[in-house]
Amino acid sequence: MGSTAVSTQQAFFNLQKFTPLSYASSCRSIRSKRKCVIPIKCCSPSPAAEVATTAKENRRELLKNGDDKLEICRVLNGMWQTSGGWGRIDRNDAVEAMLNYADAGLSTFDMADHYGPAEDLYGIFINRVRRERPPELLETVRGLTKWVPPPVKMTRSFVSESIDVSRRRMDVAALDMLQFHWWDYSNPGYLDALKHLTDLKGEGKIKTIALTNFDTERLRIILENGIPVVSNQVQHSIVDMRPQQKMAELCQLTGVKLITYGTVMGGLLSEKFLDTNLTIPFAGPALNTPSLQKYKRMVDAWGGWSLFQELLRTLKTVANKHGVSIPTVAVRFILDQPAVAGSMIGVRLGLSQHIKDANAVFSLVLDEEDISNILQVTNKGRDLQKVIGDCGDEYRRA
């Protein structure tokens, strides 16, 4: 997560191998869609047109709690990669890349107060949009940020001043979404902070309040205290299905949505790592970014590199069948899970881009055979709920 608690995050990164546990299968409800073959009639749209229409309809999602509403793109541009460790970011190139993503319909950006210059880049970008793009595009652009405070007393002035910093950096009167994170549940100050954030929302400084890396128990407590949370951002991938065991059920009961990160596991879920052997030094691609190193540890906890290769081969077969890439299949699979509103793909702004793969997600429909084949592999892995704990617990282990 962030610089305010690097030692906590580093503790997770440096964990020894988790204690192996035999896999216990759990009931996972999965929304699957059958492919329908529609006869072409003289006055009916072509299948290609119907796919395009479906893709357009599935592109955005409305997050809602009471009168609070925010529509986002279902594939979000994650900006953790601006915080260092992924290569030097040039400001002008980064902003130009953000414009390219927005122009392609990928207009929701996720950042945090501690993601290096992310909020500042957004401020420059949104001003470019205001000056250089039609109002219709500006209306679709969303900037979601996070606040990760130190464990100090959550006074009204401290919370307000912290939020004002993000508003200035992002150059917006009101934050589209403020996603709140808290490191230590034994300190009940998170409720004080959230109540102050709710007041700031009432003053027009925040449009929607959300959480990041909160577990199911704390989400329930927060909702019971009347905090109008619209979403919870959690780690969720084909390998890490923990959010579907407890969190999704509560979300479906309350209307809270999930925004997922780690969905392509920092790039591990891609053709680049297919048929590689990381046990041989320098034989495969380097795990040379913080995200690759983080999610490699998740692979080890889940079932190891050999099982992961089996998963990649299965995903490649599915991808070839639909004419898409492995990351596209990985994101579509998670977007089809209950309560998931959107999934994040990290962007290395100005260094590489994934616009084509990201947009392919919207027209991809996984059929029952695809889902069955994927589950045959994932069911061989360990139950990460038992290995790690509930959503966000990986950040709170000492």
Automatic annotation (TrEMBL):
Keywords: Cell projection, Cilium, Flagellum. Residues 76-376 form the NADP-dependent oxidoreductase domain. Gene3D superfamilies: NADP-dependent oxidoreductase domain. It comes from the Eukaryota. The keyword Cell division does not apply. The gene is LOC107004773. This is Flagellar radial spoke protein 5 isoform X1. InterPro entries: NAD(P)_OxRdtase_dom_sf, NADP_OxRdtase_dom. It comes from Solanum pennellii. The keyword Amino-acid biosynthesis does not apply.
